[in-house]
Amino acid sequence: MIKNNKMVLSYVLKHQQNKNLDEIVQILEENKFWEVFPPKEVEVLSWQVLIGLGHVVTLAFNPELLRTVNLSIEKGAWGAFDTTAYATYDYMNQWKSKKE
After folding, report:
1. pLDDT tens digits for 8-48?
2. Dihedral over Cα of 71, 12, 32, 79: its sign
3. What domain of life does the native source organism fall in (predicted)?
4. Residue spans of alpha helices (H) in 7-61
5. 19 vs 70: CA distance, rounded Å
6. How far, in Å, CA of 6 to CA of 42, rounded?
């Protein structure tokens, strides 16, 4: 989706089940996750924790920053989370119109 000339991307950061919370926190600190993700030029639209799964983070950014965003995940999250990225768009208006 393009929002104000920005693409919207959602990441699922799934907790690696073979690690406990202390191990995940240690890996994130060693990887400097909180320093590199998200990059400064990126807007965080939402950041949710799904109990039993992990984090779902939705970002908006200029499309030319896609590589930078991806590298921030590769450098910061790997080893702590299994990651998946999804291009995202808003379906709320379509859903509401179908309900009417």
Report:
1. 999 999 999 999 999 999 999 999 999 999 999 999 999 99
2. negative
3. Bacteria
4. 21-30, 33-36
5. 23
6. 10
Phi, then psi, of 17 in degrees rounded to 5: -65, -15
* CATH classification code of 2-99: 3.30.70.920
Instruction: Domain ranges for the chain, please list them.
Output: 2-99
Residue 60: partners with Cβ closer than 8 Å, 6 or more residues away? 3, 4, 6, 7, 8, 42, 43, 45
DSSP-based three-state secondary structure for 93: helix
The residues, any chain, with a CB within 8 Å of residue 49's CB and separated by 6 or more, are 55, 56
Assign 51 to helix, strand or coil: coil
Distance (Å, whole) CA 22 – CA 16: 12
- Answer whether 0.90 is exceeded by the pTM: no
